[in-house]
Write a structure and sequence with these properties.
The complex is a heterodimer. Chain A is α/β, with parallel strands linked by helices. Chain A folds into 2 domains: 8-280, no CATH class; 361-604, 3-Layer(aba) Sandwich (Rossmann fold), CATH 3.40.50. Helices cover 55% and strands 12% of the residues of chain A. In chain A, a hairpin with a 2-residue loop joins strand 13 and strand 14 (583-588). In chain B, strand 1 (132-134) and strand 2 (139-141) form a beta hairpin. In chain B, 53% of the residues are buried. Classes of the chains: A alpha/beta, B mainly alpha.
Chain lengths: 609, 291
């Protein structure tokens, strides 16, 4: 991902933070409210990385906000630790460690389970703070007397003890938090998190350790929460126990949703609106307790009508204003993409791994069996593919072809049997590890990252090849990864999507999506590539182009292709395996298969006569 | 400090709480199972049930009228909620559904606070179940015993509705695969509305029958919601028997831990949930693929 104007967002953030205390009071914000907006905004940056970027909706962030806040406050008060900033960082680390432990449990599940588990865990923290740890945390009284920061510079002592000086202190940390977060979301890790949000199954299949990356996002969010919690204590001179309540988690979620997720700034915008309205409704309109009712209604209305929050709404309006012209350009590009030249002249070699050999069998499956309840999908299949081979697999619907592929790529474990890849037993391995070893497949039904652009899709796949299944290079510029862009460009060229590189996948034509599907598998530089019905649903012209594409891919690589298009497979493959009712019916060259009476009877029904 | 009478009494307390949690969780779990919507306003519906019963009791002085009125009112709230808002969210991501029901829960709580204030309200139990009952080895408040029976009856009725009626068959089929049910020519959307109503009523009914043993406050539903989540995670999402089993387990854990130190009751509940998640990721009686 390349940015035309580096540091633009950072600069604007700095300008905004400097201007805010001069402008906002004229709009009716009191200084204390502005400070609270910053604390919630910082808290929200981490939450946005978790929810907006990774797609994990946690209702338990209060646990980390409270943990960081109370650890820092305890150090600064009871323990008499004098260094405010160090205490804040220790609080942050504590929250991160707690986040890691909680994440280990909560991330065992996804979706609504994850949301429910985070709620439950946060509630535990609330009760523990209130009762068993009350002697340390002050129970329902919280921890009063949190000192304001001051720095002895030798010649003078800088103290942050007024609303405006505290603002400067908070704004500094908000700015730093934003700079760090921007680095993270622009790093390879950020790209993978976005991919996980979009399609976790494919992110795992191209070779990323999804669980580890989710846990990373969870720990980042917890660390931000912990630091913000510490700042809350410093700002108020008091660490309130309600930092731990379900209300705190809920308010964070609502602010993020109101502001808009996926931009890092949404929570700040949401917090500004939320805190401003709550001040305004309580004081100016004198609504008393009803302020929360009004805010609740506002929130529900926003969720119903403004799906992507305020920032998303503004972006949509802008897109609408530019809409007509852009749509025409897109249609033109559709036509152009179709005639883009096939990269047939240029073969793309597979990534060479230590385990690679060049002759003999690359894949050996013995006695492979898969049983779903009473259904025997695959029964005792023995299957060997040699290096450099292009194997076709055919069989009538329900013959067990897709199940067979899923077992070979370790997507589903076999009921019985063994799979050996490059001399290594991979039976029972994860799909991620299999891909890292150089074995992957393209899916029968497209499994793409639909909300990302074509280039971003390809980058995610290539990153798995370049970086391995898990690496914490959170501050690295992806452009600096050696060979990344070249490999992305070359693969895009090969599947002739170069001109569509910056188009969102959801805007692609079907044929283009099919090519990207193959491209994602190719991007991981597999030494053995499985293609599950690559020609499915294509027009005759697209089939011809794709067969050409497959031929060019096949150079220097071993491939196994399932398809219903006999003509194409007989043209492509050197050997064909025919599956029927979960078993190998026969194996041989295309000529042998065409001539085989059993095949004609069972499958072809004499069409080729 | 720990003697057997004390223990037995806490065990019965656990049974009372467990039965209530089982009923509330059943409502949550059948709604989720059928509609695919996690209703974060479920705790607020429980609370509304209590207040609705309180209002009906104020007019009629009748416990039975309060229970019937409260339960029906919450069912109505559920149906209106489904018709006006939830049905537009079936096609939207889970996260949006969670956000909107969370927002609705807040609105419900604040509406009640607006009309009734934050001070707690009390609904007396029925005259035929006042006082205490000797159980041989200890005495126990009669209404709490009656409560177990009442909730058990409600669960049995729910069981019959789910397992012995046409509607129940459609609901259970819908939990398995609501698209297929629609393809068979059944108007799933009307069924969804009814399921949402029944699920809500389960929470509301629990709210009103529980009212005589607690005092009503607008935010009482929050703690119940959290406990309900744990119950559903333990029992398995979408599983009616799982909700009952999970409810009883959670009730006993909370009560028995409270005997030693109430501060740890949530910790123990959470530890149990973790153990279940590690050993059986889909819950004790749940099946894979429902998330």
């Amino acid at each position: 991902m390349r940015y035309a104007r580096p540091y633009l967002v950072e600069t604007l953030t700095a300008v905004g933070l400097i201007a805010a205390p001069l402008v906002l009071p004229h709009l009716g914000f009191v200084p204390n409210t502005i400070n609270r907006i910053l604390v919630w905004g910082l808290f929200g940056i981490g939450f946005d990385i978790l929810f907006g970027f990774t797609g994990l909706l946690s209702f338990g962030q209060a646990a980390f906000f409270g943990t960081g806040g109370f650890v820092a406050a305890y150090l600064m008060t009871t323990a008499g630790f004098p260094h405010v900033v160090t205490a804040l960082f220790i609080g942050m680390i504590a929250a991160g460690v707690v986040g890691w432990l909680v994440g280990l449990i909560a991330l065992r599940r996804t979706g609504i389970y994850f949301a429910m588990i985070t709620v439950a865990i946060a509630e535990v923290f609330f009760f523990v703070e209130f009762s068993p740890l009350a002697s340390v945390t002050g129970g329902e009284n919280g921890l009063p007397g949190v000192p304001t920061p001051s720095f002895d510079l030798g010649f003078t002592v800088v103290k942050f003890n007024t609303d405006y000086s505290i603002y400067a202190f908070l704004a500094f940390w908000y700015f730093l938090g934003m700079v760090v977060a921007l680095r993270i979301v622009r790093s390879p890790v950020g790209a993978i998190l976005a991919a996980i949000r979009d399609n976790p199954l494919r992110a795992a299949a191209v070779g990323h350790n999804v669980h580890a990356y989710k846990l990373t996002a969870f720990v980042i969010a917890a660390a931000y929460a912990g630091f913000a919690g510490g700042l809350l204590g410093v700002m108020q001179g008091f660490m309130p126990p309600d930092a731990f309540t379900f209300d705190t988690s809920g308010q964070l979620v609502m602010q993020a949703a109101i502001g808009g997720t996926g931009t890092l700034f949404g929570p700040l915008v949401g917090a500004a609106l939320w805190l401003y309205l709550s001040d305004f409704l309580q004081k100016a309109l004198d609504l008393g307790a009803a302020w929360k009712l009004v805010l609740g209604v506002v929130f529900v209305v926003l969720v119903i009508f403004l799906r992507r929050g305020i920032i998303g709404g503004i972006a949509d309006l802008r897109a609408l204003a530019r809409g007509a012209g852009k749509a025409a350009a897109d249609t033109a590009a559709d036509g152009a993409g179709f005639h883009e030249e096939v990269g047939a002249d240029e073969a793309m070699p597979a990534h060479h791994r230590a385990s690679d050999r060049t002759t003999g069998p690359i894949l050996e499956a013995t006695g492979l069996t898969k049983r779903y309840g009473g259904l025997l999908a695959n029964n005792d299949i023995n299957f060997t593919v040699n290096h450099g081979e292009l194997r076709g697999v055919i069989g009538p619907n329900g013959a067990g072809k897709s199940t067979f592929f899923k077992m070979l790529t370790c997507e589903v474990p076999p009921t019985a049997g063994r799979i050996v890849f490059e001399g290594q037993d991979i039976t029972g391995m994860s799909v991620t590890d299999a891909c890292q070893l150089g074995l992957t497949k393209s899916y029968q039904v497209n499994q793409l990252f639909t909300h990302l652009t074509v280039r971003e899709n390809m980058t995610v796949a290539v990153l798995a090849d370049r970086r391995g299944k898990f690496r914490l290079d959170m501050f690295r510029d992806p452009a600096r990864i050696e060979g990344l862009n070249e490999q992305v460009d070359r693969t895009l060229h090969l599947v002739r999507l170069t001109r569509r590189a910056d188009t969102k996948v959801s805007d692609l034509a079907y044929g283009e999506k099919r090519r990207l599907e193959i491209g994602l598998a190719l991007g991981t530089s597999p030494s053995l590539l499985l293609l599950d019905e690559p020609l499915a649903g294509m027009s005759p012209q697209e089939r011809i182009d794709t067969v050409k594409l497959l031929k060019s891919i096949a150079r220097g690589r071993t491939m196994i292709v399932i398809d219903h298009d006999m003509e194409a497979l007989f043209e492509l493959a050197e050997r064909i395996t025919v599956l029927q009712e979960g078993q190998v019916l026969v194996e041989g060259t295309p000529e042998e298969i065409k001539a085989n009476p059993a095949v004609q009877e069972a499958y072809l029904g004499g069409v080729l006569e | 400090m720990i003697n057997w009478v004390n223990f037995a009494s806490q065990a019965v307390n656990g049974l009372v709480l467990g039965a209530l949690l089982a009923l509330i969780s059943s409502g949550l779990t059948i709604i989720y199972g059928t509609l695919g919507v996690l209703n974060l306003a479920h705790g607020a519906l429980f609370m509304i049930g209590g207040y609705a019963g309180y209002v009906v009791y104020g007019f009629t002085e009748s416990y039975v009228a309060a229970v019937v009125g409260g339960a029906l009112f919450v069912m109505l709230v559920g149906i209106v909620m489904e018709r006006v808002i939830i049905r537009y969210f079936y096609a939207r991501p889970h996260e949006d559904q969670i956000l909107v029901t969370f927002g609705l829960g807040i609105v419900f709580v604040e509406v009640i606070r607006f009309f009734f204030g934050s001070l707690s309200k009390v609904v007396p139990g029925p005259s035929w179940a006042t006082g205490i009952t000797p159980l041989g080895f200890m005495v126990y408040p009669t209404y709490r015993l009656a409560l177990v029976a009442i909730v058990a009856v409600a669960l049995v009725v729910l069981f019959f509705v789910l397992y012995r009626t046409r509607l129940g068959m459609i609901v259970r089929a819908g939990i398995e695969d609501s698209t297929m049910v629609g393809a068979l020519g059944i108007n799933v959307y009307r069924v969804f509305m009814v399921v949402f109503g029944i699920g809500s009523m389960a929470a509301g009914f629990a709210g009103i029958v529980n009212a005589p043993v607690v005092s009503l406050t607008p935010d009482m539903g929050e703690a119940i919601l959290v406990q309900t989540f744990v119950v559903v995670v333990i029992g398995g999402v979408g599983s009616f028997p799982g909700a009952i089993l999970g409810g009883l387990i959670a009730g006993e854990i909370i009560s028995i831990t409270s005997m030693f130190d109430p501060g740890y009751s949530y910790v123990m509940l959470f530890v149990t949930m973790t153990v279940v998640l590690v050993l059986r990721p889909y819950g004790l009686l749940g099946t894979a693929g429902r998330e």
